[in-house]
Amino acid sequence: MGISVQDVSKQFGSFQALDQVSLDIKSGSLVALLGPSGSGKSTLLRLIAGLEMPDSGKIWLTGEDATHRGVQERNIGFVFQHYALFKHLSVRKNIAFGLEIRKASARHVKTRVDELLELVQLTGLGDRYPSQLSGGQRQRVALARALAVEPQVLLLDEPFGALDAKVRKDLRAWLRQLHDEVHVTTVFVTHDQEEAMEVSDELVVMNKGKVEQIGTPANIYDHPATAFVMSFIGPVNVLPSSSNIFQNNGFDSAHPEMFLRPQDVVIDTSPNGNTVEARVSRLIHLGWEVQAELSLDDGQVVTAHLTRDRFDELRLVPEQRVYIKPKDAKSFPLYYSI
Amino acid sequence: MKRGWAKCLDIEQPLILGEQTEMSTIAPSPRLVKRADAKRKSWVPTLLIGITIVYLGLVLYIPAANVFYQAFKNGIGPFIENLTQPNFIQAVRLTVMLAAIAVPLNTIFGLCTAWALARRQFRGRSFMLSLIDLPFAISPVVAGLMLVLLYGRQGWFGDVLQSNNIRIIFAFPGMVLATMFVSMPFVAREVIPVLEEAGADQEEAAQTLGANGWQTFWRVTLPSIRWGLLYGLILTNARAMGEFGAVSVVSGNLSGKTQSLPLYVEEAYKQYETEAAYSAAVLLALLAVVTLVLKEIMERKTRIKEVE
């Protein structure tokens, strides 16, 4: 086991940041801690790193109890959201920092730094200072610096949060690729579900200091365990269970609300079995998809996503009458709002 | 639920932005309007600059220039003669010693305080923050008096000190204490904002890379606060060497014994040795000039760092 967290709690003043959290992370895997701000994901990462100490519970790293070990002795690599590069040191010196602390020989330091510069595709920029690099380059230096000491686990706190959209996308793919080369157990924190699903082997969805669900991206998307997970991972319609759209189609539930994904709304131009009638109130073109806002006769508004092909086939226009039914819908015992 | 929709809607934004940029090119440039305004009211800045120059001239420049004029009125010979008097040399030695003790001690204290206040949250933090400024707020004479009331013959520790034959007031140790008191806040005051701005990120990064507290301080914290610290040092030194009030209360002003440079200036002037007074004053003024030049260099370096 790479990392094991057992019943860990952490409080800041009166704020319960983490509440009895347990978690196992396989060695060599790439795991995303996903949740809204205040969900405790960053706190959990800092506890694993040893930058914070838990109020109760235990943290195991590679089979050893590390709860009371200082951050220096945990042999972790940590990448901060705002890079935290040493501003007064060159890129080379930044990357070499951990090795020099460990009193590595000058020759070893040089070869290792060269290796890492190549790995993060910054060969030739070793003599620059952090202020002379772009955001994406800085984050890659931060990664190289963390990897230099060959850590047992690599921890990344919102690593792409401060970058613009295009660079973020590139770096995500690059991080995934890097992990496939280096194979170090990696945990990264993000609030972006798309990012989490794209990069990680496994997702840990957190909310209000607790773990809501752990699983592969596909598993969590298809089988959300709670209302929170369902509404946090991807867009969703929340409608009363009593609505005709569910009643006519056998989606009955003891719970007052049903969750319906926009792509699970089936649209037709003529009545078909158990469909209910709706009016197209708005159409939004998203390129590869069309988003249709549909008003039901009982006043509910349903948002549907349909592919461009299907849209062209139906030739939808605003104010048109259509007939819809749900392909799939879910309900949960408790509904959390976000 | 809102997240998902918001993301979809984002895609529309470029269109709106495009419209805005077009609009702004059509609208008249606000800068042009302002320049026309400035022409109409151009006598205001002139008047303000004039007032400032007259004011600074009367209060600052003319008195300062006069010091140099008076010192060199009879040529360089008398000036040098004044600077070689034994009492003067002793005053310079004392002043240098005061600074040599007060500056390092206040630097260490200032660094510790700055770190504690910038990096730790604890009860009474803001109270301590304002307490550091106490030496700024208290009149130096009062500061000196406080020391006399504590360590003087009639003071709280008076009996203990006397029975152990230790002299603090009217002696060098008292002068050191007074100097330390008045020059205490500068380092902490200069370093706290720099530490706060740098954040704890770099220090935490050093720790994750295996650096212990000492290594983190020398390799990461100190380099990132070096300009603020140096600036604080310069100001501390200037205050330590220039202090009159507090030191004068506790020193007893014994010429050739407990007389620092500012005290020497005052005494010489009172004894109608105007030239000696002005010669010593020139030395103190030169210290101020050097301080200001160094401060300017520091600030320029810091500014360059910030631009980077």
Shape of chain B: globular
Multimeric state: heterodimer
**How many domain modules of chain B?**
1
* Low-confidence blocks of residues of chain B: 1-28
Quick structural overview:
The complex is a heterodimer of chains A (338) and B (308). Chain A contains ten helices and 17 strands.
Properties at a glance:
heterodimer; A: 338 residues; alpha+beta; Rossmann fold; OB fold (Dihydrolipoamide Acetyltransferase, E2P); 6-stranded mixed β-sheet; 10 helices; 31% strand; elongated; B: 308 residues; mainly alpha; MetI-like fold; 17 helices; 81% helix; disordered N terminus
List the helices and strands and how they pair.
The complex is a heterodimer of chains A (338) and B (308).
Chain A: E1 3-12, E2 15-25, E3 30-34, H1 41-49, E4 56-61, E5 64-65, E6 76-79, H2 91-101, H3 106-119, H4 135-148, E7 153-157, H5 165-182, E8 185-190, H6 193-199, E9 202-207, E10 210-215, H7 217-222, H8 227-232, E11 237-240, H9 244-247, E12 257-260, E13 265-268, E14 276-285, E15 289-296, E16 301-307, H10 308-314, E17 321-326
Parallel strand pairs in A: 3-8, 3-9, 6-7, 7-8
Antiparallel strand pairs in A: 1-2, 1-4, 4-5, 9-10, 11-12, 13-17, 14-15, 14-17, 15-16
Helix pairs in contact in A: 2-3, 2-4, 3-4
Chain B: H1 2-10, H2 13-26, H3 30-40, H4 43-71, H5 76-83, H6 86-119, H7 125-132, H8 134-137, H9 140-151, H10 158-163, H11 172-182, H12 185-198, H13 201-208, H14 213-242, H15 245-251, H16 261-270, H17 274-307
Helix pairs in contact in B: 4-17, 5-17, 6-11, 6-12, 6-14, 6-16, 9-11, 9-15, 11-15, 12-14, 13-14, 14-17, 16-17
